[in-house]
Amino acid sequence: MIRIKYKRLGSSKNASTLIRVTTMTGIAKTLSDHHKLCDALFAQCERAALEQRWAETDEFHARFCRAMDAHLGAEESVLFPAFESAVGSMDGPTRVMRAEHAQMRDFLQRLTQSVGERRYADYADCAEMLLILMRQHNLKEENILYPMCARTLAPRSNELTRQLAQALTPP
Ligand SMILES: [Fe+2]
Asked: Does residue 4 belong to any structural domain of this protein?
């Protein structure tokens, strides 16, 4: 759901201005917030790898992979099917997003291998490519797909937000 509020700027009685404030709630906010969490976990892992703190890198990388698995899984098992069934097609934007998820999973696997083998150069190359892919992917989702889903799925917003939050919570 996209909530639109109006906020009064300025203190003068005659010259205050109303501005429109757009706040994301529900489906879009839940998933956008989780993007931030994944980004933070990735950055934490990259720092540890750069400094060759491998024991910490193992732990941070595992945490990052769990968060990414949960995120991709939540979209694929809750959001995308709901959107596809509402619009009656699997050939829209969710098809592109699913293909990008597959690419991300490949990169995650390659990262896991380079962390396991303590090969920083391979890790850094792969991390850079994943970072670029994630940035582009997340921007498309946050600017286009999530608002589209929030509009299309508005009547089911509460139910789907609950299901997404549950799928995003690590066991
Ligand atoms: Fe996604």
From this structure: no
Distance 4 CA to ligand 1 centre (A): 25
CATH classification at residue 101: 1.20.120.520
Q: Over its length of 171 residues, how does the chain's per-residue pLDDT go in tens digits?
A: 444 454 554 444 444 445 444 445 699 999 999 999 999 999 999 999 999 999 999 999 999 999 999 999 999 999 999 999 999 998 899 999 999 999 999 999 999 999 999 999 999 999 999 999 999 999 999 999 999 999 999 999 999 999 999 999 866
Cα of 9 vs centre of ligand 1, distance in Å, is 36
| Residue 13 within a domain | no
Q: How far does residue 14's CA lie from ligand 1's centre (Å)?
A: 47
Q: For the chain, how are helix, strand and coil distributed in percent, rounded to 5?
A: 75, 10, 15
Instruction: Give 10 Cα–ligand 1 centroid separation in angstroms.
Output: 40
Residue 31 CA to ligand 1 center (angstroms) comes to 9
Residues whose CB is less than 8 angstroms from the CB of residue 38 and which lie 6 or more positions away in sequence, other chains included: 64, 67, 68, 71, 134
Instruction: Count how many domains the chain has.
Output: 1
Q: What is the pTM of this model?
A: 0.84
